[in-house]
């Protein structure tokens, strides 16, 4: 239950990577936090943050040193698809900071939008500022707290957001209390009537089915964006999904603004799917039943 | 028969405590998160409760010890866990509203729910030692055996709960099962204790 991979696993991983990786990686900083070891390294044109020694799949954030505005990861591009559902967010909540790539991109496009970011790990906030150009400000607020605690508190204080991005998962560990029906109901309560939820999830295993039925039970039909069975983004809207026409219109108006990030509607729009490619009988995850990490482990 | 039952009770008591401890992290997470301090609070409460339980159990063993009374401890400890199932959410929400800092919120909630059951479970071990030891010569031998069964039970409770039980059951179903088994075991021990204590036995 604790988010600490065993030393042995890390060691084995490290050893195998040392044996295979050939391109020159250069560790520029390491940071120990209460939750994990954070490694910042540079490789070729990229600077990356990883929670595990140079394990490619454990990269949390990368930025291109030559083109710092462009998104390196596919999933962040897909997350921005939320804007096709609501092109003018005024109050944004992001759970999970990473390198701060998403809030910085949003702030560049919408200078007047207020962005609240909840990050549990102060060390992540520190390295995001030091190495990834993230900075808070009058419109960008970082709250160092557990996402679930923040959501519950914000709900009781009647706070509302028109865009919520959940980005607290990685390949190795899922905070299980952030993937339950009750949590999603608390998130739903924080949305304005036309609010949009974008969730980055990593599930490729049988957790995929459980996650799907859980989101469906709270938000009904959602857009399911998948690339190569690796990344999965869920996009939902409180007052129902907009029509294809509306999405294409929004995509057209956003085209120029999103271009510096390194993608356009020609790539993103075809990913929007409402097909239910999961087992509908998969048990819904709740606070009473949430073995997400067990369900996510390969069998 | 008595001895087997005493070891069984000690092992089950160890199982029970660790299963509850693991579940308590789950129970607290929706209100207080999954941060390191939530686990810190949980472990603190369990350790403190056990330490006080050991003290009380040893004390109580001075007065007319019997298998029947050991069985009562087991059943009392299990019964004191029932409020978690019945009032869990209400109490957790109340604590959430009262205490802003999740460190003290989780500490308070863990104390309210788990201090008494764990303290009573802690009473089991020293009390059981008293029932097993007939002469000072073998006291270390029996204390060792008892530690073995009790801690072995704890290990089993930890792995079964975290590897398997949470994968198949809801938290409240697991709690109900744990309480049920404690009550059943307590009942059997009471009956056997009564029979062996009866005149002529």
From TrEMBL, chain A:
Report domain PABS positions. 5-256
Fill in the subunit field for this protein: Homodimer or homotetramer.
Q: Where does S-methyl-5'-thioadenosine bind?
A: 36, 119, 146-147
Role, per record? Catalyzes the irreversible transfer of a propylamine group from the amino donor S-adenosylmethioninamine (decarboxy-AdoMet) to putrescine (1,4-diaminobutane) to yield spermidine.
Annotated pathway:
Amine and polyamine biosynthesis; spermidine biosynthesis; spermidine from putrescine: step 1/1
**Enzyme class, first EC level, given as a word:** transferase
Q: Which residues form the signal peptide?
A: 1-24
EC numbers on record: 2.5.1.16
- According to UniProt, the name of this protein is Polyamine aminopropyltransferase
Quick check: keyword Signal in the entry? yes
> Care to name a GO molecular-function term for this sequence?
spermidine synthase activity
Keyword vocabulary terms for this entry:
Polyamine biosynthesis, Signal, Spermidine biosynthesis, Transferase
Q: Which organism is it from?
A: Candidatus Competibacter denitrificans Run_A_D11
> Which PROSITE patterns does the UniProt record give?
PABS_2
Instruction: Provide a GO biological process annotation.
Output: spermidine biosynthetic process
Entry annotation: catalytic residues = 167
Record-stated family: Belongs to the spermidine/spermine synthase family.
Name the catalysed reactions: S-adenosyl 3-(methylsulfanyl)propylamine + putrescine = S-methyl-5'-thioadenosine + spermidine + H(+)
From TrEMBL, chain B:
In which domain of life is the source organism classified? Bacteria
Give the transmembrane ranges. Answer: 35-58, 70-92, 112-133, 145-168, 174-193
Question: From which residue to which does any coiled coil extend?
Answer: none
Entry keyword set: Membrane, Transmembrane, Transmembrane helix
The secretion signal range is none
The answer to whether UniProt assigns keyword Transcription regulation to this entry is no
- Family annotation (NCBIfam families): MFS_SpdSyn
The molecule here is called Glycosyl transferase
Q: Which organism is it from?
A: Candidatus Competibacter denitrificans Run_A_D11
């Amino acid at each position: 239950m604790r988010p600490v991979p065993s030393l042995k696993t890390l060691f084995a991983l490290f050893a195998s990577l040392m044996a295979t990786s050939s391109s020159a990686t250069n560790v520029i900083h390491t940071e120990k936090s209460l939750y994990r070891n954070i490694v910042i390294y540079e490789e070729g044109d990229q600077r990356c943050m990883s929670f595990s020694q140079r394990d490619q799949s454990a990269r949390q954030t990368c930025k291109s040193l030559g083109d710092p505005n462009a998104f390196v990861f596919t999933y962040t591009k897909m997350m921005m698809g939320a804007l096709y559902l609501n092109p003018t967010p005024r109050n944004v909540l992001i759970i999970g900071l990473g390198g701060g790539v998403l809030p910085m991109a949003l702030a560049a496009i919408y200078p007047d939008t207020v962005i609240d970011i909840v990050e549990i790990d102060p060390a992540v906030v520190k390295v995001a500022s030091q190495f990834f150009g993230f900075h808070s400000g009058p419109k960008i607020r970082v709250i160092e707290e557990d996402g679930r605690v923040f959501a519950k508190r914000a709900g009781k204080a009647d706070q509302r957001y028109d865009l919520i991005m959940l980005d607290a998962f990685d390949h190795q560990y899922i905070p299980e209390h952030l993937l339950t029906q009750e949590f999603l109901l608390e998130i739903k309560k924080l949305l304005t009537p036309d609010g949009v939820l974008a969730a980055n999830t990593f599930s490729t295993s049988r957790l995929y089915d459980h996650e799907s039925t859980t989101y469906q039970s709270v938000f009904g039909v959602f857009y399911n964006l998948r690339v190569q069975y690796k990344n999965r983004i869920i996009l939902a809207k409180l007052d129902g999904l907009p029509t294809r026409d509306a999405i294409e219109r929004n995509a057209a108006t956003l085209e120029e603004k999103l271009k510096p990030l390194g993608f356009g509607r020609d790539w993103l729009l075809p990913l929007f799917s409402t097909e239910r490619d999961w087992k509908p009988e998969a048990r819904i995850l709740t606070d009473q039943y949430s073995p997400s990490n067990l369900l996510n482990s390969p069998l | 028969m008595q001895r087997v039952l005493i070891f069984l009770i000690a092992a089950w008591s160890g199982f029970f405590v660790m299963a509850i401890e693991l579940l308590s992290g789950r129970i607290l997470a929706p209100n207080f998160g999954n941060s390191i301090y939530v686990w810190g609070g949980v472990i603190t409460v369990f350790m403190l409760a056990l330490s006080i339980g050991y003290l009380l159990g040893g004390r109580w063993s001075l007065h007319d010890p019997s298998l029947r009374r050991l069985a009562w401890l087991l059943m009392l400890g299990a019964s004191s866990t029932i409020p978690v199932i019945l009032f869990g959410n209400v109490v957790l929400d109340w604590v959430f509203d009262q205490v802003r800092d999740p460190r003290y919120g989780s500490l308070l909630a863990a104390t309210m729910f788990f201090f008494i059951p764990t303290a009573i479970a802690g009473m089991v071990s020293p009390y059981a030692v008293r029932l097993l030891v007939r002469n000072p010569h073998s006291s270390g031998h029996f204390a060792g055996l008892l530690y073995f069964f009790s801690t072995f039970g704890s290990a089993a409770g930890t792995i079964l709960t975290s590897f398997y039980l949470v994968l198949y059951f809801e938290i409240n179903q697991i709690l109900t099962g744990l309480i049920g088994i404690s009550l059943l075991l307590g009942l059997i021990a009471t009956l056997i204790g009564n029979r062996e204590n009866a005149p002529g036995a």
